[in-house]
Amino acid sequence: MVKDLLPPKLFPSGNVFVKYSPDGGSFAYYPSGRMASCYERMGSGFFAYFFSESGKTMLSFDPLGVGYCSFENGKPRLTSRMPGGTYCDSDGKIVRLWTTLKPLKAGNPIEFDLTKDIHVSFGSRQLIHVKLTVMGITEEYDLGEVQKMATDSYLTKAVSQIKMGPERGKYVLDIDKCRLAAQENKERREAMGLSEPEAPKVHITEDTFQKHPPLKSIVGSTTALQESVKAGHFHVDVFVSKEKMRETLGASLPTLRLGAELQTNPFSTTISSLPSSKKEVLDALLFENDINNDALPLSAAIKGASGRYRPEHGQHYRTPRKRLLELKWKAYDEAISDFPKDQLLVVCCLASWMPQCRRAEPVLEELNGKMATERARGGASGGGGGGARASSPPFEMRKFDMSENRFLRDRHNINTLPMYLMYYGGKLAYASNVLNGYGTSADDMVAQVRTTIADAQRGSVLPEGFRFGATSDAITDKFGSTMTHTSPSIAGPS
């Protein structure tokens, strides 16, 4: 689609001020003949360059609204990037600063004269307006990202988000909004002079027949039918509606041949033979059946597989897992000191990027959920597996994200994850990456908690400033040295 080409704007002297392009772009010139602006289309937006009368580049923006404005001496005056931008004075001091989280206030753009001929108004990457005035003649430009295309995304069409199951985190979209957005996008492309992408053409080749043999007979029969119609062997009438078909054919409208069990003429091909035309036949067909249309009951395996299965209205699946409360490094010591002295606190040091931590976290969350259920029922505060749950000692678990801060890594020289730190009475009583000697299960956690509480009550805690030893390959090196000295003896005399 090509837009109508506008006539150029001229100075009183007859020289060209603005020359327009078929795609909506333009070129502007000073009376001296030097270029004042270059406004070129790129996709759905424009690249814009503005120059001073001496030939220096004063402004440059791309179709996304990313670019800059400068002073005559070349120092930056305004910068615009995807994360935000700055506006500086002639000394280089930042006067105004904005980001995507804290944008410029609506209706309060930054306005300034870039030169005596160029005036700029900047509100955001989508709201950039430039006015070029030379010898009393004005040309205005809208730069930056097209607002509709900048703000429209699949999130604006989402009606809900899936919270459970394997599709957790995905958005459910409103199909009507998607269709409307596609139509608006098509109209926008037509208004901008962009051609709509052609639909891909499907060509059936010999390779297609090799991959899908049943297609060959279908295509062959279709081709033969088309040739027969062209030869006049068949008379084909196409009716655009049922009303038109009934009006044309009348009582000779062919129907399905119905059997004698439906109390009608099995050899009739007219509409009068339909059962619905006879009241007694229709009454015989429309009877209430005794079929139970209730949904089949779901098995226990399906009910427990995912929260998306809801066999009865109002009955929703609830996971037994409960997320661990997270400790932040700034309030870490305060949380340890404020914890009840007669209970044990387990800090689980995890990192979401590590596979071992991703396997351990669901186990810890399930144990945390069981303990919460026991507390809600008035039982013991602990939680383990099987019958050990009721006799478990009181303890709580917290999570510390090792990817967020090096606080615990530097304090205790932690180089292995997941790591479990147990505090009793505000003191570190246990620190290891295994539980109960060698395990990592929920039962091992409960057993280790019981042992740690007994040790802490006897006064057996880790020293202040506890740190893990430096890791090395000394044992491997020593073993290699031993094998080097003993190998001649094992081999025997040559």
Structure description:
It is a single chain. With about 500 residues, the protein is α+β, with helices and mostly antiparallel strands. The protein contains twelve helices and 21 strands. The longest helix is centred in the C-terminal third of the chain and has 22 residues, at about 355-375. Among the domains are: about 10-145, Outer Surface Protein A, domain 3, CATH 3.90.930; about 155-190, no CATH class; about 325-455, Glutaredoxin, CATH 3.40.30. It is flat, with a radius of gyration of 39 Å. Residues about 255-265 and about 380-390 have low confidence and may be disordered. About 25% of the residues lie in helices and about 25% in strands.
Provide the fold topology:
Elements: E1 9-10, E2 16-20, E3 26-29, E4 35-42, E5 45-51, E6 57-61, E7 67-70, E8 76-80, E9 84-88, E10 94-99, E11 110-113, E12 118-124, E13 127-134, E14 137-143, H1 147-151, E15 158-161, E16 171-173, H2 175-191, H3 206-211, H4 214-230, H5 242-249, H6 279-285, H7 300-303, E17 325-326, H8 332-338, E18 344-350, H9 355-376, E19 395-401, H10 407-412, E20 419-424, E21 427-432, H11 442-457, H12 474-491
Parallel strand pairs: 17-19, 18-19
Antiparallel strand pairs: 1-2, 2-3, 3-4, 4-5, 5-6, 6-7, 7-8, 8-9, 9-10, 11-12, 12-13, 13-14, 15-16, 18-20, 20-21
Question: Tags for this entry?
Answer:
single chain, 494 residues, alpha+beta, Outer Surface Protein A, domain 3, Glutaredoxin, ten-stranded antiparallel β-sheet, five-stranded mixed β-sheet, 12 helices, 23% strand, flat
